[in-house]
Write a structure and sequence with these properties.
Blueprint lengths: L3 H14 L7 H7 L4 H8 L5 H16 L11 H10 L4 E5 L3 H11 L5 E6 L10 H9 L8 E4 L2 H10 L2 E5 L6 H4 L6 E3 L5 H8 L1
Parallel strand pairs: 1-2, 3-4, 4-5
Helix pairs in contact: 1-4, 3-4
Length: 202
């Protein structure tokens, strides 16, 4: 989903509410994909743990109270629905919390498409491979039978550490030049390219 602007705005507001200077848009953008605590620690090195937690809590409150849900990129719902109907098992590994993921799935109507999920607060956050290793173990898949698709280097670093196939997305948070350093099997310019790319992998 196209949530970048909403995430950046909520983090910036959370900083301001704590009497802190809001980090620059690009700086916040660079941390998307990490767990909230890791993002705040990266944005504000040396910030004490209590303040860090308050910023994270403020973000969750602000983001949850936003007036409109972030929109899906064009073609996402249709493509994922078609893949599920074709027998692919879809899963989520995200830096969001369980509460945040549940809200995102409710907002977009995607919840029924995924067979399992992992979040940063119930496993280990990116770029640790633990979320992916847990998903593959649960679904009894080997690394060569699964594909991680992500738009940040944290996604692809996680997949690389898990030894699994990986693909980038050119229209997300990090530029393609950063994704290529993790040797993705392919890079999507549009989600509708995914079914054909999967057929070529098999």
């Amino acid at each position: 989903m196209d949530s970048e602007a909403a995430i950046v705005a909520a983090i910036g507001q959370a900083y301001l509410e704590e009497g802190l200077k809001a980090p620059a848009y690009e700086a916040i953008r660079e941390t998307i994909g990490l767990s909230l605590i890791e993002a705040v620690m990266l944005l504000t090195p040396g910030l004490d743990a209590e303040k860090c937690n308050r910023v994270a809590l403020g973000y969750r409150r602000i983001y949850s109270a936003r007036r409109s849900a972030p929109a899906l990129f064009p073609g996402v719902y249709e493509t994922l629905t078609a893949l599920r109907a074709a027998g692919y098992r879809l899963a989520v590994a995200t830096g969001k919390s369980q509460v945040g993921l549940r809200q995102a799935l409710d907002d977009t109507g995607l919840g029924g498409l995924f067979v399992t999920t992992r979040t940063a607060d119930c496993s280990e956050p990116k770029p640790s491979p633990k979320m992916l290793l847990e998903i593959m173990a649960e679904l009894e898949l080997g690394p060569d039978e699964a594909l991680m698709i992500g738009d940040t280097e944290y996604d692809l670093a996680m997949a690389q550490a898990a030894g699994m196939r990986r693909a980038g997305v050119s229209y997300g948070t990090h530029p393609v030049s950063r994704l290529l350093s993790f040797e993705p099997d392919f890079v999507l310019n549009h989600i509708r390219e995914l079914p054909e790319q999967l057929r070529m992998l098999n």
